[in-house]
Design brief:
alpha+beta, Alpha-Beta Plaits, 4 strands, 35% helix, globular
């Protein structure tokens, strides 16, 4: 599943390294409390993409409620999110992961996906993701 969540008024909150790192840290905290497989992610300046597979009984709505509220609390910036998120069931997970990883390239933030620090494709950071089997 591909989840997209956008900041309120497309504010580029995650342009700040501290905020982008906290967005990733929060993702892992949520996963520890509400298990799901994390296949790919990217934290863009004004939105996030996650490729996940929830593990029963965890629900996507729970993951996103806890993620969004927890991150807003940790950042102490008030209401930072649009109220909803977009969920797409994908046919080809590898194509979706490629889309997520190339989002910073398409936005002109880097020339190659591996150079974007706030992504599971990063060659600069070691993020724990789940292999797709």
């Amino acid at each position: 599943m591909l989840i997209t969540s956008v900041t309120r008024n497309r504010m580029p909150i995650f342009s700040e390294d501290r905020c982008a790192k906290e967005a990733i840290d929060q993702l892992y905290r949520v996963r520890a409390l509400h298990p799901f497989l994390l296949h790919a992610f990217v934290i863009m300046p004004d939105h996030c993409h996650f490729v996940v597979h929830p593990i029963a009984p965890t629900k996507i709505s729970t993951i996103m409620r806890v993620y969004k509220s927890g991150l807003a609390f940790e950042l102490e910036k008030g209401s930072i999110w649009q109220s909803r998120f977009d969920l797409q069931i994908v046919d080809n997970i590898f194509q979706t992961m490629n889309y997520v990883h190339n989002n910073p390239v398409k936005a002109g933030l880097v020339k190659i996906a591996e150079n974007y620090r706030w992504s599971s494709a990063s060659k600069h950071e070691i993020w724990q993701i789940d292999d797709y089997v």
